[in-house]
From TrEMBL:
Gene Ontology MF: a single term: metal ion binding
Pfam families for this protein: DHODB_Fe-S_bind, FAD_binding_6, NAD_binding_1
UniProt cofactor note: Binds 1 [2Fe-2S] cluster per subunit.
Transmembrane stretches, start-end: none
Gene3D superfamilies recorded: Dihydroorotate dehydrogenase, electron transfer subunit, Nucleotide-binding domain of ferredoxin-NADP reductase (FNR) module, Translation factors
InterPro entries according to UniProt: Cbr1-like_FAD-bd_dom, Cyt_c3_hydrogenase_gsu, Dihydroorotate_DH_ele_sf, Dihydroorotate_DH_Fe-S-bd, FAD-bd_FR_type, Flavoprot_Pyr_Nucl_cyt_Rdtase, FNR_nucleotide-bd, OxRdtase_FAD/NAD-bd
Domain FAD-binding FR-type: 11-112
Native species: Fervidicoccus fontis
Entry protein name: Ni/Fe hydrogenase subunit gamma
Length: 283
């Protein structure tokens, strides 16, 4: 149970300065923000910040890269797709040099440390690739600690691909198999065509790989099931779930999913823990 002082610290946003904005696609931008008084240890891959925009609202946004320690604070990276009121406000109104509010980081994060020595599969669809990117960059920094790396990243079209400026560099990762795919053929596209679960069905994975999946829920459901049926241990298949959130700290109940709160118990869950809820529409 959280004490009232602890709760106060977690519910009052800190000011963060927007240091740089990168235009990724027509509806998605990446923000580098400086948060004073924080250290990078807290900013583990898979965790998220509650981003508060005065006059608009507050939304959960995942860390989309490893955070960097700076003098007296941390540089954190967020990638936002404009889908509704707050996210579109962020895209259209927030400029470099502006201050925004942030709380967190919250959530459990990907259990990447536990996967040391193992083969790793990273499967991302659309904006779901954002929370997976820190895993990939963590492995790139600690290459010797992990086995073979499989990456399958899918977007609707070539123009919807995030991080175009670094995608090619993933292919230089030793002992890796990198797949970029789009939903439908497009002029000039030289990568693969097909949905992420279909690509997973085509590649030769080792059954003791640890899998980290994020994307539209239907994609996570089909991909996890496919990997499970292929023989992977459901305790080693992880998905990051998205639900509407308010408090971010397991008090309000807005993000309830089965008997879990996505903000506090997740957002990362093993397939073993959530497969029965993922089968039910509308939870
Ligand atoms: C842990 C977590 C991490 C996230 N990380 C990212 C990220 O890195 N980048 C990013 O762009 N987005 C991320 N999201 C999603 C993001 O929080 C939502 O897109 C945002 O809250 C939408 O708010 P809005 O005010 O812009 O849209 P609204 O105006 O509230 O809604 C627009 C439309 O989206 C639907 N919608 C809104 N929120 C959700 C939701 N959580 N689940 C399902 N449908 C929803 C609404 O029903 C409506 O149809 C994350 C969500 C969670 C829970």
């Amino acid at each position: 149970m959280l004490k009232s002082e602890e709760i106060k610290k977690k519910v009052v946003p800190n000011a963060a300065e927007v240091v740089e904005i990168i235009e990724e696609t027509k509806d998605t931008k990446t923000y580098k923000i400086f948060i004073k008084g924080k250290v990078s240890d807290e900013f583990r891959p898979g965790r998220f910040l509650m981003v508060y925009l005065k006059g608009s609202g507050e939304i959960p946004i995942s860390l989309s890269d490893l955070a960097q320690d700076k003098d007296n604070g941390v540089l954190a990276i967020l990638t936002v797709r404009g889908v509704g009121v707050v996210s579109q406000y962020m895209l259209s109104k927030v400029r470099e040099g502006d201050k925004i509010g942030v709380r967190g980081p919250f959530g459990n994060g990907w259990p990447i440390e536990n996967a040391r020595g193992k083969d790793i599969l990273i499967a991302g669809g659309g904006i779901g690739f954002a929370p997976l990117r820190p895993i990939l960059n963590y492995i790139r920094k600690n290459r010797k600690d992990f086995g073979k790396v499989y990456l399958v990243y899918g977007a609707r079209s070539p123009w919807d691909m995030l991080y175009k400026y670094e995608l090619e560099s993933y292919k230089e990762l030793p002992n890796s198999e990198i797949h970029f795919t789009i939903d439908r053929p497009a002029e000039g596209w030289k990568g693969e065509v097909g949905l992420v679960p279909d690509i997973l069905g085509r590649i030769k994975l080792s059954t003791d790989a640890w899998s980290f999946i994020c994307g539209p829920e239907i994609m996570m459901k089909i991909a996890s099931k496919r990997l499970y049926e292929f023989g992977m241990d459901p305790k080693r298949i992880f998905v990051s779930l998205e639900r509407r959130m308010r408090c971010g700290i397991g008090i309000c109940g807005t993000c309830q999913f089965g008997h879990y709160y996505v903000c506090k118990d997740g957002p990362v869950f093993s397939y073993k823990d959530v497969y029965r809820y993922m089968e039910v529409e509308g939870i």
